[in-house]
Amino acid sequence: MLDYIHRPLLICGSGNMGRRIATVLATQGNMVHLYDSSSEQTDLSIQYINEYLPELVKETPNGKQATVKVFNDLEKACENVWLAIESIPEILDAKLDLLGKLDQLIPQDAILTTNSSSFPSSQLTKNVKNTHRFINTHFYRPPITKVVEVMGCGHTDPKVIDFMMKVFTEFHLNPFHVRKESIGFIFNRIWAAIKRESLYVAAEGVSTPEEIDQIFSYLGDFRHGAFHLMDEVGLDVVYDIENHYAEARQDIPKEPRQYLQDNFLSKNKLGVKSGSGFYQYKDKNIK
Hints:
The protein is an alpha/beta fold. It is built from ten helices and eight strands.
């Protein structure tokens, strides 16, 4: 049986999502490796983890704070890991390159996963030889939302999926098995329609982002509306995901993406991480 108690796990990419995944997986006393080629990103990640992990451990049943170790050397980060999670931006060539390297560097018995929110793992196997151990593990805004979707690549050993479902449950996450390959998994397929139509309404001048969020919150009983949530995800990430949907489906309108490009991306308004998007932000960190 794979030793996930004493061996470290690895998150590759310490941006907005990678540091959150590291935090939520560091509550059981295990060792967490966090890799990024940028030392600036790893420094920011440690600040984030130090701020939010202690409280999260207190909230987690039987929580025990793990040791989080950062790396800027990929080969060293991969040593003896039982799990490697790729969590870099939704750029296909970059993901293909990193996943190929990880497949070569991690131990033969380790599990390889991608946190991609729009690419099914079957589209990311080009450089992965050991496809029997390769899956999607798609997290939703941890540590606030502890949902993770698990989906195979078409060649995944079913035992790998069963094992990860078990382990995620032990980490006090809520795993959902995506039983058939789906671009957007389960929730994101539904969320994408809401997000896209919200952008369309704003692009047509029917309403403003603020007003759309207000009516959405009132009638849908959501904590935040679509535009605030897009700011949290990152508008560049939203744009990349929408482009991927458009490549896969012929019915995706171009106007929402054009609205994002013309009014926000071209002005480096990327949401929370840049301090400005649909809203203004003083704090560039979101729990």
